[in-house]
Amino acid sequence: ELMGDMPAEAFDVNQARLLKDRLSRCPQYFALLPQFKGKTLMQVIASGGTYKTITAVTVNNRLRKLSAFMNWCKSNGYIADNPLVGLKVMTGSAKEARLSFEQHDLSTLLNLDALKAQASKHPWRYWLPLLGRFTGARLEELCQLHVTDFVTLQGIHCVRIDDGHDSQKLKNSSSRRTLPIHPALIQLGLLDYVDSQRTQNSDRLFPELEPVRGKLGHAPSKWFSRYRTKMGITNPKKTFHSFRHTLIDDLRDAGVQDSLIKRIVGHEDSAVTFGVYGSRIPLK
User: Which residues on neighbouring strands pair with residue 204, listed in sequence order?
Assistant: First the structure.
């Protein structure tokens, strides 16, 4: 869509720089937003319009994956050199955009009385921060959970992150995973809440959430931003996604194997898990 079709050997350093530039101007949610309907990606990029672009992290990930393929081409004699070596967007990494929560942040945000007050009419306001803390799952993954995603395997209560229902979408195939439910969540009554939703014949765990531009996490994301500010956490780099960073930091500090952390958080490879995620300064 961005470069047209060409033989691998035609993709030289000039083409690589052009690709990086075009990727940097790609809009977020291109396939979902109505203003782009009927337009090609190149038409949008060439229009010079104002819209929110994909992040530098996404650009770098796309370049990294293509670079891996070009390395394969080089190894198999299709090209002499990989023109993408060393090519990346240097600013705006996810580590710069989001930070892990400190212990004080967690104690403040996960104060049960404060969460219950927020959740008097909206149960998801209580459960989503707790689920984020104890699973490290992405906000959208949690918002689209169904009651049938809660299962018992070998006597252990688990939650499946899956796309088995029409309302569920995953970031990639590696996102599909099954996680044991932390005992703290069980003690707080998560499984009782799941059962109550089953009793009410609700398919989804949080049925009141409505999609906005295809995302069930739109309203929760806006609410959490207001909530954390109200609780005195005003650093814009600390968002709901910081729960994910925090879990990765905690697991890494506890000496959990990289391969297992990758499986828990649903990353394709550990280069993403440890190159992009985690922001806690090592003590040693």
Answer: 146
pLDDT tens column, 243-284:
999 999 898 888 888 888 989 999 775 444 444 554 443 433
Q: How far is CA 84 from CA 3, 19, 54, 156, 206, in A?
A: 14, 10, 19, 46, 44
Give 50: exposed, middle or buried? Use CB within 10 Å, 0-12, 13-18, 19+: exposed
pLDDT tens, residue by residue, 93-121 = 444 557 889 999 999 999 999 999 999 98
C-alpha to C-alpha distance for 49 and 154, rounded to whole angstroms: 54
- Our measurement of the distance from residue 85's CA atom to the centroid of its chain's CA atoms, rounded to an integer in Å, reads 26
The whole-number average pLDDT for the span 24-39 is: 87
Note the helical H segments in the chain: 13-24, 41-47, 56-75, 94-97, 103-109, 112-118, 124-135, 139-143, 183-187, 190-199, 218-230, 242-253, 258-265, 270-275
DSSP three-state, residue 175:
helix
**8 A C-beta contact, residue 273 and residue 248:** yes
CB atoms within 10 A of CB 142: 25
77, 219 Cβ separation under 8 angstroms: no
Closest by CA to 248, choosing from 97, 56, 99, is 99
For residue 199, give the 3-state DSSP assignment.
Answer: helix
First CA to last CA across the chain, in angstroms?
A: 47
- Adjacency order of strands within the sheet including 150-153: 150-153, 156-161, 177-180
Please state, in angstroms and rounded to a whole number, the distance separating the CA atoms of residues 20 and 5: 16
